[in-house]
Design brief:
This is YkgJ family cysteine cluster protein. The protein is largely without helices or strands. The chain has one domain. The protein is built from two helices and four strands; from the N terminus they run ββββαα. The N terminus is likely disordered.
């Protein structure tokens, strides 16, 4: 079963883009070892979420969701620093996402099977 893109999540992504990889790692997982995959999922907003209106769109089924840019990432993702630009006001579902948890690893594995790296490695 393909998990990628099926549910709703985001994260406070990487601060070290030169370490990016979509391959799940053994041991502790860092957002820096990912292609911001969870920021590509559909994030359904819940009552009480205080997300700025310009980051919100409507899902075809009528619910409010976080909008995505043409590149497929959540519009709240700061593409320069690879972190959530609304971290303090991020949706509840993003707050519940467990980095390195079973769902995180599953979506990263599924994404890696289907896609080439979206974030190019940068060596500084």
């Amino acid at each position: 079963m393909m998990l990628f893109g099926a549910l709703m999540l985001c994260h406070s992504a990487a601060r070290q883009p030169w370490l990016m990889s979509t391959r799940p790692t053994k041991g502790k997982v860092h957002c820096a070892s990912c292609d911001a995959v969870c920021c590509r999922l559909v994030v359904f907003l819940e009552s009480g979420d205080d997300v700025p209106a310009h980051f919100v769109t409507q899902h075809p089924k009528g619910r409010d969701v976080m909008a995505h840019g043409e590149d497929g990432w959540c519009v709240a993702l700061d593409r320069t620093r690879m972190c959530c630009s609304i971290y303090e006001n991020r949706p509840a579902v993003c707050r519940r996402f467990v980095r390195g948890g079973s769902y995180c690893n599953a979506i990263r594995t599924d994404y890696a099977r289907e896609h080439d790296r979206a974030i190019k490695m940068v060596v500084k």
